[in-house]
Amino acid sequence: MADAGGPKTAVGKKADMDYVDQILEQWARERPDLDVAPMATIARIWRLARLSEAAAEDNFVEHGLSRQSFDVLAALRRSGAPYELSPTELYSSLLISSGAMTNRIDRLEEMELVERIPDADDRRGIKVVLTAKGRKVIDEAVRDHLENERKMLEGLSPRDQEVLRSLLRELLVRLGDVAEGPSDASAPARPAGVRNGYAVTAGGARRDGAAIRG
After folding, report:
1. pLDDT (0 to 100) of residue 152
2. How would residue 12 be classed by pLDDT, with cut points 50, 70 and 90?
3. pLDDT at position 29, please?
4. Closest CA to 90 of 104, 77, 101
5. In CATH, what is the architecture of 62-190+199-208?
6. What residue ranges do the domains of the chain occupy?
7. Average pLDDT of the segment spanning 88-111
8. Of 16, 43, 75, 209, which sits most exposed with the smallest number of CB within 10 A?
9. Which 3-state string (H, E, C) describes the chain?
10. pLDDT, tens digit, 9 for 90 and up, residues 119-152
11. Which residues does residue 178 pair with via DSSP β-bridges, in sequence order?
């Protein structure tokens, strides 16, 4: 059987194994004919995503936000002054339906974090703009979000972090996840042939993903 890609653990060193190692051992026992090396990488990416999601959710709650509301505020904030986008630009950048975006905007408007204003370039259109309160909330939430992510990476040296970033970037580009057009919130990166993003579980199943966070 091909190398599963996990660490070579001896008896008595089970503490060095992660959850994915257990999955790989089980597949090696049940299907020794399979090369599970790809799973050793993809399953760990998936597990890391889930762990980071959990840590992020705790931070968002502390700021009175949900994952969904954070995404909208972050898209507006990183778009640059005057921090406004059309609903179409927002739902395109976050890869969600127009109906779901309308609900998010409604909730944020009730919280006085965004407001709808007429679109100066389209008499029938509107823009969604950050309020002063909204900018303060998202600036504080992003600061704490980055600190959480920094803590998650503390176990790796700066050099290892750079190598990891480079490898992940290369993999994403090879999968077609490349930036389209200018670097702004209305021009989202999107994998070729994929509408709503995707993630692969340890069992090999595909499920819809969400927008890139931050």
Report:
1. 93
2. very low
3. 95
4. 101
5. Orthogonal Bundle (1.10)
6. 62-190+199-208
7. 90
8. 16
9. CCCCCCCCCCCCCHHHCCHHHHHHHHHHHHCCCCCCHHHHHHHHHHHHHHHHHHHHHHHHHHCCCCHHHHHHHHHHHHCCCCCEECHHHHHHHHCCCHHHHHHHHHHHHHCCCEEEEEECCEEEEEEEEECHHHHHHHHHHHHHHHHHHHHHCCCCCHHHHHHHHHHHHHHHHHCCCECCCCCCCCCCCECCCCCCCEEECCCCCEEECCCCCC
10. 888 778 899 999 999 999 999 999 999 999 999 9
11. 190
Per-residue tokens: 165: 């970033």
**Mean pLDDT of all residues belonging to the chain:** 82
Side chain identity, residue 176: G
Asked if residue 114 lies in contact with residue 104, where contact means CB atoms within 8 angstroms, the answer is: no
**Is residue 30's pLDDT more than 60?**
yes
How much is the pLDDT for 38? Answer: 95
pLDDT at 207: 37
- State the chain's maximal CA–CA distance in angstroms: 71
Burial of 130 (0-12, 13-18, 19+ CB in 10 A): buried
What would the two tokens of residue 75 be?
A: 């898209």
